[in-house]
Predict the structure.
Amino acid sequence: MERVLPPGMSAAAFDRGLIALRAVVGAQWVLDTDEDRETYLDPYATGDRRAHAPSAAVAPASAEQVQAVMRVANAHRLPLWPISRGKNFGYGGAAPRLPGSLVLDLGRMNRILEVNEKLGYCVIEPGVTFYELHEHLANAGIALEFGFPNFGWGSAVGNAMDRGFSFRGDHSSSICGLEVVLPDGSLLRTGNGAMAGSPTWATARHGFGPSWDQAFVQANFGVVTKMGLWLHPVPEQVISVQVALDQKDDLAWFVDELSPLLMRGVLGGNIAISTATNSIIDNSQRKDWYAGPGALPDSVVTRMMSERGLGWWNSTVRIAGPEDTNEANLKRVLAALHRHSSRDYPVSRATGASQAARGPVVNRLKVLNWYGGRGGHVGFSPVMPASGAAVVAQFHRTKLRYDEHGIDHNCTFYLNGRTVTNINLMLINLDDADHTARTGRLFDALVADASAQGYAEYRTHLDYMDAVAASFDFNDHALRRFNERVKDALDPNGILAPGRNGIWPAAWRGQRNK
Amino acid sequence: MERVLPPGMSAAAFDRGLIALRAVVGAQWVLDTDEDRETYLDPYATGDRRAHAPSAAVAPASAEQVQAVMRVANAHRLPLWPISRGKNFGYGGAAPRLPGSLVLDLGRMNRILEVNEKLGYCVIEPGVTFYELHEHLANAGIALEFGFPNFGWGSAVGNAMDRGFSFRGDHSSSICGLEVVLPDGSLLRTGNGAMAGSPTWATARHGFGPSWDQAFVQANFGVVTKMGLWLHPVPEQVISVQVALDQKDDLAWFVDELSPLLMRGVLGGNIAISTATNSIIDNSQRKDWYAGPGALPDSVVTRMMSERGLGWWNSTVRIAGPEDTNEANLKRVLAALHRHSSRDYPVSRATGASQAARGPVVNRLKVLNWYGGRGGHVGFSPVMPASGAAVVAQFHRTKLRYDEHGIDHNCTFYLNGRTVTNINLMLINLDDADHTARTGRLFDALVADASAQGYAEYRTHLDYMDAVAASFDFNDHALRRFNERVKDALDPNGILAPGRNGIWPAAWRGQRNK
């Protein structure tokens, strides 16, 4: 991809910035060929890829180099877009919000600095992948685990910074202690890490005074160079209960029965429940099932269900802990399910160690082949209260929109206890312009529908950050004004991740989508 | 108490401010008689009470009035010190850090705005006491409970804002959603509350973008006028295991055995383990046991133990949940205890409902009579890793300091899973100047000892806020500089709680203790 410069910047000024950056990280770590830039594009972009094209990338090797890069960026007014491994797929990948930003690629900083088995934590750099963390624990025989999302090559730090989650729940909840390079290049440690040599940096959730970890998450106030993450002791045993529910509206009682068990801590993490289509797209293509236009008819889904032994809704309820309490909780889970349906719920048992040994997977990428052509995907992810009625209404509303726009429906609801997060995957054939455009319109319709319910997304694609941020409208967007007031105080030149999640520094505020 | 004005302010300027405040809240809610001021002093102050004397108090009835008060404070440069119920005993009570501050008393704002039994939360105003919350739940027959500290008349919001805790763990962890009046008088709602009409304000921990709740805790960036708090479903059953350990060093194995059960979620909340003296001070006076000078000798403690059937260490381990898993977990707890000692551990069982019905207590105030004279107390509260060796070393180090300074030792260690919080209560006879002075020196010695270990306090008295904040020394006090940078951006006139937890706005920075 040809070079796209930051808005309003001359090539000469930009080149002077690159020279200064090369002096900091070495010439080979300033990446500015057309091929380099290609690497950092959003592979699944539905619109013009130039809208989120980087000008170049810079890859520092240490927190000190990040500090120096930040100082250069201030001196030359270079907007930086930090990424860890850049695998934020469905939400923009490695690409920046503001075109012409330099990608600040932290992938070289990939040390696992500490793992404490007794106290259940690790301290790691942003370049550490889920795979590397898993392998490190397995090789060292450490009986701790971390949840992992669908793509094991992603960064544990980056995923937590975007509030990614897994069956273990929200990964940002595991954050305990950050080292952050602030936009002015100074170095901050949060929590008890702010006391030099503190042994409780990654064990005490809050230090003394305000607690900042969660204010750096999903924001653009600093670049995280070290993160404490709480790891989970590997449970003695894991019982898995397979649940398949035939009727669409069964989702309501499932949410109402299982959410209280999560809220009470009887079950840990979260529970995913997905449409049959969500399993089918993993291992087959649309043409294997249906060749017609428009959205997949329900009759085809019914055929999928019967051929594959699936329900409309499918879930694996995970009961993890010691064997004795697991068996007691299994009775409770089965009793809840049998209050509504007498069907069989297959139960399997495994040691926690054997489950933990499996590690992260990647096969989820196969879904991109669903439509054929160049595959892409976008996720729409609203959060709602853990009420069966609210959840099933959200499902029907969304399914109708998919049908209206002629897009094949699939989704997952994640039960978290007090809330439910709904991930709607939109698969795309990027070679089909009409399909791609309809997906965009579907997304807009879903945002509007959710806003009308007072539901916001927990995370969104670069293209929708301004729209989602704007949906937080209380008191004339008081939260956005607050975010930007803090942003301006910490980043007066607006060099760090302008526009991330709708937070624009003064220097770039005119770039906000109207 | 005679009026103490803000440093550098004339009586005429101050009086102009009071006139403007009366216009906002009504004359009867600006409290400026000597008797009024007396009400807001720290009743247990060990030093000169003028050091933390308020000039007056103002008691708004609504968030709108708080906004108006804040605007007046900016116009007249009046420093405000917000309190909820002002029961922050041991840490300064209702008294302000900066002498001459106006106490912003939020006690009139005491509505319980919402309780959602199904989703397990409430939304309340700062004036709501633990008693009132408990009574509300009991009268409405709602099977939810909140933990409560020793004093039931305190504010649930205020306690959470100071990171108070109970057997249910850190109360600030229950915060989900705030309404905050910022220092400029504008109104902010955090999390999903920033979307008007959102049904997930108090259920979704984080909204979209940075999450601010924990940055307002223990800080001075805004006045909380509404708070969402997660409530706990009343458990089916509670099993209590009485533990008495005879040897001082038994504490080490207790920490190492029980902390992993908390970390794994087998046990919830935290576990308190206290010295025998900590029970004795509840219900007797020093003169009943010993009349000598200096610290209570160990031989007297041994007599207390044998007469009252106490161990050196005493704990009630609480197992809460369904009966079947409770019984399984009881076996696990008893097995852990019996690995180290074959003594008897009495077990009692009660329904969760009967335990919840008990509600908050107040009898803990009796400890103030220990020495006789006008009683006071101060708490020293460092946090350390959940390692038996670290904890028992902390105990010995602290006990030695108490003995050296001739102060009777008592303490509690709270096991939280990955950390242990140590509350050292210093009881004082405020009529005894020498005793009071020795207590001050003991406190200084304890701060220095803990800092040498890299242990910080989680919370401290007004007199020690600057010292504790200064002990966070990484990168030339980077955290303090960061806190104050945000403070200056949000509160340019420095009107809100100057000096709280060592955070000084530019206007008052010269007031920091050296």
